[in-house]
Amino acid sequence: MSTKDWLEKDFYKVLGVSKTAEADEIKKSYRKLARKYHPDSNAGDASAEAKFKEVSEAYDVVGDPKKRKEYDEARRLFGSGGFRMPGGNSQGGGGFNFDVGDLFNRGGSGGSSGGGLGDILGGMFGGGGQRTTTSTTARPRRGQDIETEATIEFAEAVNGVTVGLRMTSDEPCPTCHGTGAKYGTVPKVCLKCEGTGMQTSVQGGVFAMTEPCTECKGRGLVVDQPCETCHGSGRGQSSKTMQVRIPAGVQDNQRIRLKGKGAAGERGGPAGDLYVTVHVKSHRIFGRQGEHLTLNVPVSFTEAALGAEIKVPTLDGLPVTVRIPAGTANGSKLRVRGKGSVRRDGTNGDLLLTLEVQVPHELTDEQKEKLQEFNSASEHPDLRAGLFGSS
Known about the structure:
This protein is α+β, with helices and mostly antiparallel strands. It has helices spanning 3-8, 11-15, 23-37, 46-62, 65-78, 117-121, 154-159, 301-306, 365-377, and strands spanning 146-152, 161-172, 188-189, 198-203, 207-212, 221-222, 235-246, 254-258, 274-280, 286-289, 292-300, 308-312, 320-324, 333-336, 351-358. Among the domains are: 3-121, Orthogonal Bundle (Helix Hairpins); 286-377, HSP40/DNAj peptide-binding domain (Sandwich). 22% of the residues lie in helices and 24% in strands. The radius of gyration is 42 Å and the shape is elongated.
């Protein structure tokens, strides 16, 4: 039955009931008419056979609560073959009337059979509307994205590293190679969605909603004899080790996207992406500040006071010599250029040194004597005089 038939036929009139008739009344009338026009009771009567088919067709619609609701809504919107605008009538008075067949792909003067309202309503009446979709080829599906984690050393995060990740992902079933069908059989295009994997339903008779097909679960294909391994899904779990390059300069808990390294697609669709959350172990002495490395360097009281040249380590293992100016205060900063983390452009950040002046906790008598002589020979202002100034 076409969608046009749904709108032009008055099924209530065929069954001899009103539009407000209850389900029991409709069933009772149908049974009465079915017995009256049944072919077994009217052998050779073509008109009775036609009437029996008409009654059965009518009851198939209004005897089903869901179909009846859709039928009533469609008749309310489009009338009995004509579409009427509010405030008008079929012949004038501000309204207009035209054949509903033009809406449902009957074809215009140019002979076109596509683009009608039947395409818009789609399967509103259980598949009665004509569809203009000509291709029944199932659409490609993109593979799923995969999430994983990797833990690397501090130096590896600074310089970059290639790590092997063992992952379990959703891949095409190795037995049926992704078809979902038993060996020796092939899947069929889903008739409900015509291979698109999507279905459109009309809510309240007006609004259309598209969602994955309930028959094929969005695959666009159905199988009569499912694969014994994947049970018809076409997917299977696979474990593999992949070599992944972690770029230099990666930060702790940074999420890296590797395009096309996720699960394989279906029917020629692209692979998904791989997302790796990187965890960086802390270093015994070095820290990080963006693109720079940091290092706390202890220096003696005399080195800070008199100045000195000292050696400090770098992450690559080769020490560098740093000059400490005389009179350096505790917490002073020094910079060693080019000894930091690798930037995106291939250059390096710096190594930032924080000097920590160490004051001895215990002194020998000789050291105390020398320091007393130093203190007596020093002429310096009261360092705390500013604390007692007027407010």
